[in-house]
């Protein structure tokens, strides 16, 4: 996100979803990508516990739609521990 121009970055949001297990994380990522025009930044498995955190970016409305779809898809398979959309994050936040 740091490479975006300041005016474009002001419209952007960061979406974060934390789920139990890789299968649920992949289902969440698939649902998010299909639901809205977002860019999946990647995923990070946590140490222990089997939690996986997905990160995505897009315009605020798209990020909200993607996180909602991801949460719904993952909750059908496993536990969703948290989800959040952060509008106008700092340039290096979430990288």
Describe this entry's structure for a reader.
Keywords: Bacterial microcompartment. This is BMC domain protein. Pfam families: BMC (PF00936). InterPro entries: BMC_CP, BMC_dom, BMC_shell, CcmK-like_sf, CcmK/CsoS1_BMC. It is found in: Bacterial microcompartment. There is one protein chain. This protein has three helices and four strands. The mean pLDDT is 89. The chain has 95 residues and is α+β, with helices and mostly antiparallel strands. A hairpin with a 5-residue loop joins β2 (38-45) and β3 (51-59). The chain has a single domain (6-87), classed as Alpha-Beta Plaits (2-Layer Sandwich), CATH 3.30.70. The protein has helices at residues 6-9, 22-35, 60-75; strands at 12-20, 38-45, 51-59, 80-87. α2 packs antiparallel against α3 (60-75). The longest helix is centred in the last third of the chain and has 16 residues, at 60-75. The relative contact order is 0.32. Strands 2-3-1-4 form a four-stranded antiparallel sheet, with helices on one face. The termini are close together.
């Amino acid at each position: 996100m740091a490479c975006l121009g300041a005016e474009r970055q002001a419209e952007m949001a960061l979406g974060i979803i934390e789920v139990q297990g890789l299968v649920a994380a992949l289902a969440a990522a698939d649902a998010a990508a299909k639901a809205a025009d977002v860019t999946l930044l990647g995923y990070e498995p946590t140490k222990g516990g089997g939690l996986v955190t997905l990160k995505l970016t897009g315009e605020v409305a798209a990020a909200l739609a993607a996180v909602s779809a991801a949460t719904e898809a993952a909750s059908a398979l496993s536990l969703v521990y948290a989800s959040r959309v952060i509008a106008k994050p700092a340039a290096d936040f979430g990288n």
